Fold this sequence. Notes:
The protein is 83% helix and 0% strand.
Amino acid sequence: MKMLGNTELSYFCGQMSMIIRAGISSIEGLYMMADDPEASEEEKQLYKDIKKKLDEGRYLHEALESTGVFPAYLVNMTRIGEETGNLDNVMEALRNHYTREEDIRQSVKQAVTYPIVMAGMILVVILVLLLQVMPIFRQVFRQLGSEMTGFAGLLFDAGDVIRRYSVLFVIVFALILIGVILCIRTEGGRKAGIVFLSRFRFFRELRDDISRSRFTGGLALALKSGFSPEFGMDMVSEIIEDKDYSLKVGECKRMLTEGASFDEALKQSGILSGLSARMMTIGNRTGSADTVMEQISDMSRKKIDTSISNALGAIEPVLVVMLSLIIGAILISVLFPLLSIVYSI
C-alpha cells in the first residue's frame, strides 16, 4: 500500500482525535473505523492491521510505523502525544496540519497547472491554423493565380515542416510529457522541478512562504506538546523540503545552543522577518510562542493563496491577449494580400 495522502491523513487524525476525546480506546475506535461501510477495502484492511498490532501490546505510534504508510512526522508526533498523555490534542493538531498541507498542495497545483493548460490551448489553436486553415488559404491564392508570400508564406512553410516531421514532433512532445510526469510522480523529479521553478522570483517567494507555513505550523504543534524549540526543530525538519530553508533552521538551532533567545535566533537566521519577527518577539516575551507560531503559519498560508490568486488573475488576461494577437496576426497576414488580389481582378 502506498503512502497516505494529506486528505487521508487528515481524516485519520480527525477520527482518532474524536475517538480518544470520547473516552473510547484506540482499539475499539479502530474497530469502529474498520466497520464503517463507507470505508474502502484498503482502508478497512489498514485499520485492521493497526488494530492487530495494538492487540499485540504495541503502542499506537509503533502500530502506525509498522504499516509503512504513515509519514515519520505523524509517527513521531503520535509518540509524543502518547508519552505526554496529550494524544487527543496532538491528533487534532495533526488533522489541522495535514488539512493545511493539502490546501497548500492544491494551491501550488493550481498555480502550475492552469498556465500549462492555457498554453496548451493556445498551442492547439495555432496548430489548427497552421495545419488546417493555412492550406485552404493557399489553395484560394493558387486559384486566383498567385502564391502566398511574406509572413503568410513563412507560416505555411512552418505548417508544412510540422506535417512533414509530425512523427518527430510527436516523439519530442511525448518525451516532454514523460519528463513532466516524472517531475510530478517521483521524488527526484519533484526536487529537480522545484530547483528549476525556484529560478523564477514568483515561485522562489512561493516556496519560501510554503516552507515558513510548514515550519511554523509544525513547530507550534511541538511547542504545544511541551517540547523545547530545539527538539521541535529536529522534528519539523522532516517536513521541510526546501534545502535552503533547512539550512536556515540549522543555523537557528546553532544560535539557540550558543545562548541566543528564541525570537532573536529566528530573526537572525532569516526564518522570520518583518511583522512575523515582531509578533514572535512579543509571543516569546509573553510565553505564547506556540500561539504566535500558529498565527504566523495561518498568515503564510493566506499569503500563499493570495499570491496564487493574484498570479492567476494576471496570467489569464495575458494569455487571452497573446492568443488574440497570434490569431489576428495570422489572419491579417493572409487576408490583406488576398483582398489586394481580389481588388486587382
